[in-house]
Amino acid sequence: MLITEAVAQTAEATQKAAEAADILFQYKVLGVVCAILFVAVGILFWLLVRSWERTGKLTELATGEVSGQKTATLALTATLERMQVAQAAQAEAIREQAQETAKEISETRHTVANHQASVNAVVNLLVRHDRGAA
């Protein structure tokens, strides 16, 4: 009886050991899956951090570019305003010059007319003098 009991207990112990090995194997598989998931989450987190760094660098570059464009736009606006003021001053100067030129042309016409009248008077005097001498 002791032998049959020992064999029965051995069979039962072997079955329990096999169940324990199955459970341990299942936990090992679960542990491996957990380790793989942990590594995958770590890689994804690392990629996320890199993308944030890249996004931060791109944001800095874009901010710098926008700031540069804003400065350039302000400079161009100021230049355009100065050009408009200069053009207005030139237009006024051209108007004044045109008025002065028109006045000088009018005065020159009057002077030429006066000279022509003087020359005609001299010619008439010479003609009369020639007629009286002849």
Describe the structure concisely for a colleague.
Helix content is 99%, strand content 0%. The protein has one helix spanning 2-133.
What is the CA–CA distance across the termini?
A: 191 Å
Secondary-structure element string? H
| Tally of DSSP β-strands | 0
Please outline the major beta sheet. Answer: none
Shape: rod-shaped
Structural class: mainly alpha
Give the radius of gyration. Answer: 56 Å
Portion of residues within helices: over 70%
Mean pLDDT: 84
Number of continuous helical runs: 1
Low-confidence stretches: none
What portion of residues belong to β-strands?
under 5%
How would you describe what is shown here?
The model has no long low-confidence stretch (mean pLDDT 84). By secondary structure, this protein is mostly helical. The chain is built from one helix and no strands.
What is this structure's SSE topology?
Blueprint: H1 2-133
